[in-house]
Predict the 3D structure of the following.
Amino acid sequence: MPRQPSIQEIEHGGDIHLATLEARNRILRQPLGLRLTEEDTRGEQSQRHFVILDHGRPLAGVVARATEPGEVRLRQMWVEPDLAGMGLGRALLEGVLARLASEGIGQVVLHARKPVLGFYQKCGFREEGPEFTEVGIPHRRMRRQLNPERQSPGCHR
Ligand SMILES: CC(C)(COP(=O)(O)OP(=O)(O)OC[C@H]1O[C@@H](n2cnc3c(N)ncnc32)[C@H](O)[C@@H]1OP(=O)(O)O)[C@@H](O)C(=O)NCCC(=O)NCCS
């Protein structure tokens, strides 16, 4: 685990992006008996891809899709399983939220798997709307308001 996690926005289609597709398939799909599909990755060339890198290897990642002016949806958040629970997820979210806030984004939404609601709650997200099923498992929609003036929105500890 890097001492100072370095959060980077990566190019779609490059080697690091290809490594994130492998990780997304292995971490977000295979445990559910699924595979990452074309539908999962459709339109991603116009979405933003953020990672924590360690010597060129992505250890965690998330995709950001603009939904409407001032709002972004985060999707496909993952951390390498052998590094889970060490703060990488929080570091990645903090870094991405700070960047989005500095760009004037005021609202961030996501679809959280039920078992990880607590992680997003700790990072300031709140549930909205009813439970629903996605990739065969229960999810809740969550939202966090960002203050564009604040460079570092932070997560609760
Ligand atoms: C969910 C995930 C992104 C969290 O990343 P992480 O690096 O393990 O989390 P962190 O170590 O940064 O945890 C930050 C805080 O959230 C808490 N947390 C982490 N996972 C949690 C969970 N599943 N439920 C409740 N709290 C959780 C941690 O305990 C920590 O709180 P603390 O500082 O009070 O101890 C990661 O475990 C993961 O990739 N899981 C598998 C894929 C997945 O489910 N992705 C989400 C799809 S919606």
In short: The first helix runs from residue 15 to 29. Residues 109 and 143 are 4 Å apart (CA to CA). The chain has one domain: 6-145. The chain has a mean pLDDT of 94.
